[in-house]
Amino acid sequence: MDAAHSAQKKRCDWAGPDGGLYQSYHDREWGVPVFDERLLFEFLILEGFQAGLSWWIILNKREHFRDAFNRFDAEKIARYGEADISGLLQNAGIVRNRFKITAAVKNARAFLAVMERPGGFTEYIWQFSGGRPLLNKWKTPGETPCSTPVSDAMSKSLKSDGFSFVGSTICYAFMQAVGMVNDHIVSCFRHQEIVEQYFKPEWK
Predict the structure, then answer these.
(1) Where are the beta strands (DSSP E) in the chain?
(2) Model pTM greater than 0.90?
(3) In this structure, which CATH number among 2.60.40.1120, 2.40.110.10, 1.10.340.30, 2.170.150.40 belongs to the domain 32-203?
(4) Which residues are catalytic?
(5) What are 139-175's pLDDT values in tens digits?
C-alpha cells in the first residue's frame, strides 16, 4: 500500500493522520485476533503499564520494554529478584513505576501457573469471549465502551488467579488490542478487513 493510497483510507479517529507508528499499529495489529501465548502475555503486561497513561507512550517505548523484559519471556521474568527490579527502575526506556514492574513479575508467575492448565493461557483468556472474536458495529468513537460485562468477568477471574493491574478497563483495552473484540468503527477500512480475514461466517 503506497503512502498516498493509505492516507485516503478512512480510519478510527485515534489512529491519527500522520502515517506514523500509531497508524501502523492501527492498520496492522489493533483488533487482529491473537492466539500466540507470548504475544498475549506481552499485551497483558503492556496494558498494565498503560494504566493512567496513554497508549501512545507505551507504543513508543514498546521495543525498550521488549529489550528490558527479555522479549516477554514469562519464565525469565518470573525469576526476577530485587536486583532485576532495581535495574528496571533505572531504565529510562520504560515506564519506571515500581508497582507496575513488580506487578509484571507477579503476573509472569500467575501466567505460568495458568499455562499449566489444559489449553494454557490462550484457552483461558479466550473463554471470556466464547472462544471467538466479538463483532461490534459502532458508528462513532463515542459509542465504544471502556468496559463491558465480559471485561468485568475477565478482570475478576484474573485477579482471583493472582494477576495485578487487570481492572475491567485494562481488560477491555486488552480485548480490543488482541482482537477478542472488533472495535474499529464501521466506517474504518479495518473493520471489514478483519471480518473478512478472521471471522467465520457464523460469527458475522
Answers:
(1) 134-135, 181-182
(2) yes
(3) 1.10.340.30
(4) 25, 47, 55
(5) 999 999 999 999 999 999 999 999 999 999 999 999 9
